[in-house]
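DATA SHEET
Item: assembly model
Revision: 1
Owner: S.N.
Input lines:
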Amino acid sequence: MNLKRNLLAAKAAFKISMKIYFRYPLNFILTFFDPVIWLTPFYFMGKSFSSSGTAAGFRSYTGNSDYIGFLVIGYMVTSYINTAFWSLGFSLKNEMMQGVLESNWSAPVNRINLLISKGLFQFVATTFENIITGVVCYFAFGFTINNNILKFLLYLIPGIIAMMGLGIAISALVLIAKDANSIIDFSSSVVSALSGGFFPIRVLPRAIFFVSMLIPLTYINDSSRAILINQTPVMPLKYQFIIIVASMFVFVIVGSGIFYAIEKKCREMGLLSTH
Amino acid sequence: MAVAKKELAQMTRYPTWIIQFIVWPLIFPLIYILSAVGMAGPQKSGLAAFDSVAGTRNYMGFIVIGTMVWMWVNTVMWNFGTFLRDEQMRGTLESNWLCPIKKVDFLIGGASFSMIVSALLTLVSVIEYRFVYGIHFTGSVLSWILSFSVMIPGVYGLGTMFASLVLWVKETGAAVQLVRGSIMILCGITFPAAIMPGWMQFIAKFMPFTFGISATRTIMINGGSILDALADMLICLGEGFIYMIIGRLCFTAVENKVRNSGSLERF
Amino acid sequence: MHVLYSSNNIYAFSCRPEVDESSNRGEGIYMEKAVEVTDLKKVFHTKKKKLFRTIEKKEFKAVDGISFDIYKGEIFGLLGPNGAGKTTTIKMITGLLRPTSGYVRVMGIDVDKKPMEALSKIGTVLAGDRSIYWKLTGRENLEYFAALYGCNKNEAKNRAAKILDRLGLAEKADELVEKYSTGMKQKIALGKALIPYAPVVLLDEPTLGLDPQSALNLREIILDIKNEGRTVLLTTHYMEEADFLCDRIAIVDGGKIIALDTPSNLKKSMDDIKLINIEVDNAPEDMLCKIKGLSSIQKVISRYDEERRDYVLNIHHTDSNELIQKVIDCISESGCRILNINVKEPSLEDVFIHLTGKSLKEKVENNETV
C-alpha cells in the first residue's frame, strides 16, 4: 500500500513539474537559443586560435582538434550538473518561497520520493534539451558524434543518478542557507569548470589537476568525449566506469543522509515556512 | 536614496557578498582564460593566430577586460530586472508602487546602488588581475575610469529595457539569458570581434559596449591614449544615450500595460 | 436555531446540532479521542550576531506545556492573539515542526514516531493563500494533492470534481489559481484539506481575509464537515466564528492554555462579572486610575478605535449598575466627554479580554487591575 501510494505521488509530482515547466514558455523557447548563446564565444575563441581550420594547440591536449565537439559535450554534461544544482537543488527553496513546501510536506508521502520525482522530470527535460542542443549545434557549428550512443548511455545513466544524489544534498543545504543563490552559483561554476566542462583539465596546474581527478563528474565529461568524438581519455575507460558507478552509490546514500538530517533540523527550528 | 539604502542594508546582511566581490571576479574569467590556454596548446602554437586577429598576444589581458565589462553590465542588468521580480515574488511590488514616487525613480534607486557595487567590483577585479594573474595594465587610472564611464548611459538604458521586459513576461531567468548572451556574443567579450562573420559585426555596431570594450582595450592593454580611443568612446556614449531614451519609453509603456491588465502582483 | 453573525451584521439563520453541555468539558456524546496533545513544548533559540560573532543568545518559548484532547466529531477552537502559539501548535500536530518535548497522537498514532501514518489521517489548511500552486488550475491542484494522499487517477478526478462543486468553484476549476480572487484561493486551500476525506481536519485561519458572504459560506462547509462525523481543529481570530462553530474552545496566550471549555461555559464563568462599554473622546491615565480605584472594579481596558477616532473603555465589575454613575462622575471630573455608553452581557470576546487583557484584533493599552 505504501509503495502504491508513493508511486502515485511520484507520478503526480512528475506531472505537475511538467505542467509548471510548460507554463513558462519563454524558458522552453530558450532551450533553442541557450546552446548558441553559451557556445558561440568559445567557438569564435577557438577560431581565433586556429589557422587553416585546425586548432593545433588544442590537438596536443585532446588528441584531435574537434574543439566544438569538446565544448558541446561539455555543455551537455554541464547541463546535468546545473540541473542537479539549480533545478533539483533549488526546488525546495522555490517551493518554500511559493508557500507550497508545507502543503506538500503535510501530505503522507515520503519527502525524498517527492523531491526525486520532481527532480526526475527536470533531468528528463534536460535530456530533451540536450537532444535539441545537439541538433542546433549540428546546424550552427557542424557538431557531429559517432554512433557509440549505447556505450555512452551506459556511462551517462549512473552519472545522472550520481548527480541526482548530489542535487538532493544541495536541496537540503539550500533550505538552511541564507542567500543560497550566491553559494550555488559559485559552487556549480567551480564544479563545472574543474570537471573539465569547458577546457581540457590537462591545462590545470598539477595541484588543481589532482582536485579535478577527485571529482566524479570529471569522468562523465571525459568518458563522453572519448566515446562520442574519439578524444584521448585521461585514464582508461574501464576505470572511469568503475569510478562513475561507485560515485553513484556514494552520492545517493550521502545525499539522502544529508537530506534527512537537514529536514529534521528544519522541523526542529521551524524553518519550513521562512525564506 | 531610500531604495539604495535599503538595498545596501539587505546585501550586507548576507555574508556571501564576499564571494560576489572577491572570489567571483577571479573565477569567472578563469573559465575563458583556461579555455584559451587549451586552444593555444602546451607550446603556445595557437598564439600566433590569435595575435594576427586581436593585435596582441596578451590573451589574458584581452579576456579580462571583456569579462570585467560583461560582469558590470550583467550585475546592473540583473539587479534592474530581479529587483522588480524579487519584489513581485515576495508580494511587495504593489505595496511599493502604491507609494507616491515615479516608478522609474524606484528602479533608479535600486540601479544607483548596483552601479556603485559594480564600480567597486571593477576596482577589486583590476587589483586582483594585477596581483593574482600578473596582468599588466597600461594607461592611467583616470583614463581607465573614463573608458568605463562612457558605458554608463548604455548600461542604464539596457537595464531599464530589461526591467520592462521582466515586468511584462514575469520571468527573469530567460530574459537575462537572452540579453546577456547577446552581449557576450556580439560585443567581443572573449574573442576579437573581427573573427565574426560580416553580418554579426554589423549587428555588433549597434551595441554601445562593442565600442566601449574596444576603447578600454586600446587604453588598458595596447598602451593607447584617450585620443586613440576617442572615436570608440564617442560612439559608445552616443548610442548609450539613445538606449536610455528607448529604455525609459519601454518602461512607461509596459508599466501602463501592466496596470491595465492588473498583472502587477502575479508571478 | 442560531444566528450567524459576521462583523456585527446579521446575515442568515442556520441550524446547528445542539451540543450536550451537561458536562463541564462538553464531553457528552464525544468519547473517543481523535487528537491527543500532551504537555507540548516548543522552544526557539535565536542568536544575535555582530561581525560573525554571536553576542547574544535568546530562548523563546512559543509553546509552553500545552495539553488538550479533541474528541471525535467535535469542532475544537484554538483562540489567541498573534504570537500566542496557535500556528506553532498546529504545525507540531502535523509534524511540520518537531516539539521540544511532549507528544501528539492523531487517531491513536504518534505523530513523531509514525509521521506518514498520522499524516494520512489529517487534512490541513495552512494560513494564507500561498499554500497552493498558483501556476496550476484549481482542478490540477486538487488532483495533485489527492494523488499525494494515495488516490489513483480516476479517484482523484472524481473527488476533485465533487469538492469543486461543493465549494462552488466548478465553473472556474480550469483557470489558473493566480487569476482567482482571495476567497476562491482560500476555498481551493480548504478543498486541499477535504480531498483526502481524512477523519481529522486542521484549519488554520480558514476565513482570514474573506468578505462576509464568503466567510459565511466557508463556515457552513465547516459545519457540514462536522456533520459528516469528522473532527475539526480550528484556529481563528474571529470571536463570533469561534462562538458559533466550536463545541469547545481553548484560549491560548503566551504559549499556554489559559481556559478550555464550551463557549457557553466560558461565558458563564463571567456570570459574576458585569460589563460596561463606554466610548469617550479621551482616556488620560489619571482618569483611568480613578476608575480603577473604585470598589468592585475588576478590570479597566482602554483601546483606541481608529475608525471612530475615540477611546473605548471596557470596564469589568462585580457591583450593581449603580456603579455606572460613579464611573460617569470620574469621566466628567477629568473633563472628558462620554460619546456612548452601554451595559452588556459578556461575549466570548469579553471572556477573552478578561482572561488575557488583550483584544484579538487590535492592540490594547493594557490597563488591567491585578
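QC remark: The first strand of chain C starts at residue 2 and ends at 6.
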